[in-house]
Automatic annotation (TrEMBL):
PROSITE patterns: HTH_MARR_2 (PS50995)
Domain HTH marR-type as annotated: residue spans: 10-142
Name of the featured protein: HTH marR-type domain-containing protein
Lineage per the UniProt record: Bacteria, Bacillati, Actinomycetota, Actinomycetes, Propionibacteriales
InterPro entries cross-referenced by the UniProt entry: HTH_MarR-typ (IPR000835), MarR/SlyA-like (IPR039422), WH-like_DNA-bd_sf (IPR036388), WH_DNA-bd_sf (IPR036390)
Pfam families: MarR_2
Length: 143
């Protein structure tokens, strides 16, 4: 990512956060691409693992993915055995999606890719600085 020290907002926190966010997203995509996986796969499986199984429409809303795009992602994940879909017995028009044991194993591997991207992003910082940064960002985001 090209530096913009002369940008009119270069001295503003929002500008720096935005640049750091873009860099972190680029690094995550790069690490995932090199491993042959996609960030959309991660978002789907992490949501299913963390929030539980869900109807396809609910899952799409949870992760902010267009419903028709989600169908394609689910097809890919189901093909490799990372998720399973079943008909909702309460409404036969709906499909319920759940993560499989293989999906959970893959999710752990993808977590490691994210950790590697984070380590690369934060390489200039000491462990203490990383802890302070995380604390400050958590406070700002209200978490």
């Amino acid at each position: 990512m090209q530096k913009s020290p002369n940008h009119r907002l270069a001295d503003r926190v929002l500008w720096a956060l935005g640049r750091a966010s873009l860099q972190s997203q680029r690094l995550v995509r790069q690490h995932m691409l090199e491993a042959g996986v996609r960030t959309q796969h991660y978002h789907v499986m992490a949501s299913l693992d963390g929030d539980g199984e869900a109807a396809q429409a609910t899952l799409a809303d949870r992760i902010g993915l267009d419903r028709s795009d989600l169908v394609n992602v689910l097809d890919e994940l189901e093909e490799v055995g990372y998720v399973a879909r079943r008909v909702d017995p309460g409404d036969r028009r709906r499909k319920i999606v759940a993560i499989t044991a293989a999906g959970r194993k893959q999710l752990v591997a993808m977590d490691r890719l994210i950790y590697a991207a984070e380590d690369e992003l934060l390489a200039p910082l000491t462990a203490a600085e990383r802890k302070v940064l995380l604390g400050l960002l958590s406070r700002v985001s209200g978490e």
